[in-house]
Amino acid sequence: MASVLLSSFYLAPIQYYSKLFRSERAYIEIHDTYQKQSYRNRCLIAGANGILPLSIPVEKPEAGKDKMKDVRISDHGNWRHLHWNALVSAYNSSPFFEYYGDDFRRFYEKKYAFLLDFNEELRVLICRLLDIRPRVGYTDRFIETLPNGMMDFRESIHPKPSRQKPDPDFEALPYYQVFAEKLGFLENLSIVDLLFNMGNESRLYL
């Protein structure tokens, strides 16, 4: 793929990182209208009882301030503590949690004002741990007409099956998961599921 257009997601799914890995250039859309119930503020991990969604609470945008770049994180509900405990509970027994856990823990000990900053700093960390070096830029306006050679995945990578679009370039091949014997293979979860379970083989999977 020459270039891809993506939204900014919280601990994005494996499909998202496959785009970052395989494209020559990636652009993160930051002028799109914030979408509720999307990966922008939520991720899916594998808990002991099945897929567990984790959602970051956000403040209601002011009038005219509903672009992704303007969305502020809310401190409602002690979410940092809850998300970190959920990650520990889900992956503490995974093969590589002890190697990567501390890298992620600091994100739940620090307050971020903006969702975009939190998401993007996590993405940079994850790319480093995956040992991938995508060329990433940010949009300076909302892109309505795609340039030649650019593929748009802003809305098609979505937690709701009804919003997803066929992607012939992505196949969710099975890999080791802690609870697979009980739950079966759960596909296209957050990239942390792949990292904590497969470690340095995650790049080969991508």
Task: Give an account of the 3D structure.
Helix content is 31%, strand content 14%. It is α/β, with parallel strands linked by helices and 206 residues long. The protein has one domain (3-205). It has a 4-stranded parallel sheet, covered by helices on one side. It has a two-stranded antiparallel ribbon with strand order 3-4. Strand 1 (3-7), helix 1 (14-22) and strand 2 (25-29) form a beta-alpha-beta unit. It is globular and about 45 Å long. The model has no long low-confidence stretch (mean pLDDT 94).
Structural class: alpha/beta
**What's the number of helices?**
7
Helix percent band: 25-40%
Radius of gyration: 16 Å
Uncertain runs with pLDDT below 50, 5 residues or more?
none
Quick gist of this model?
This protein has 206 residues and is of the alpha/beta class.
Offer a few descriptive terms.
14% strand, two-stranded antiparallel ribbon, alpha/beta, globular, single chain, 206 residues, 31% helix
Task: Summarize the SSE layout with pairings.
Elements: E1 3-7, H1 14-22, E2 25-29, E3 42-47, E4 50-55, H2 79-91, H3 97-105, H4 115-130, E5 136-138, E6 150-152, H5 180-183, H6 191-198, H7 202-205
Parallel strand pairs: 1-2, 1-6, 2-5
Antiparallel strand pairs: 3-4
